[in-house]
Fold this protein.
Amino acid sequence: MNITRRLLKVEALASSLDARRQAPPVVMDPIGLFTRAVGEPPDPWQRDLLTTPARRVLLMASRQSGKSTVTSVMALHQVLYSPGSLTLCVSPSLRQSSELYRKVAVGLGRMGETVSIEAQSALRLETTTGSRVISLPGTEATVRGYSRPDLILVDEAARVDPALIEGALRPMLAAAPEARMILLSTPWGKSGTFYEYWTAGGDEWKRVMVPADQVSRISPDFLEQERRALPRHVYLSEYFCEFTDNELSVFSSEDIHAALDKTLAPLFPGHQWEG
């Protein structure tokens, strides 16, 4: 009799474990996921980004502001709670994109047994639910082979080849209207796709700006040291989200645009130049 009872208990326990394995995970809110994966609560701007419904986001933030951390948590949420999803991490170089991918993998490891890994390498992982995270260098040829992504993260987007975004990534969204694309970067001159989207991209894009003086982890003393040590255009670009002209530029962008002003009268009206 005792043996029968024990067998029944074992069967009941096995059935309970099977039910737990088959049951979908309880979806954790992105803010709670950030706190658990990172080990501290998000900053206010990170909270807003984690909960935004926007599908197209431009994140222009200071160095060391936590932009890659918050976007890696967004990717982690996608992996955990969207079975079969595809997340692409793209950067100008493979080293940079693999660093963003590494943060996703580390966060996944901190989640314990929430999800199981089916396969993992230094550049990609796949869970038992079919969700994938893939790290790619920023070249059009390496990205074209993928389709229907659910989340695209483009790190250092100001330095990415415009052909990558316009020719490879944006066309993917045609077959995936619900997909999200997030371009995160510090500014880098007054040219390129990131600059054009920020200044003239229209309402399609949600714009988030995070200068260094809004980041509690960056002290005023450190910023003062950087101000003294760096060229002015580098300091303003890296820490205060300003699109500045490079010091090697012969003419400023303002001078060039002013020279193209058609409302200005010519200095020598009616004169025909030869040669």
Summary: Residues 76 and 104 are 6 Å apart (CA to CA).
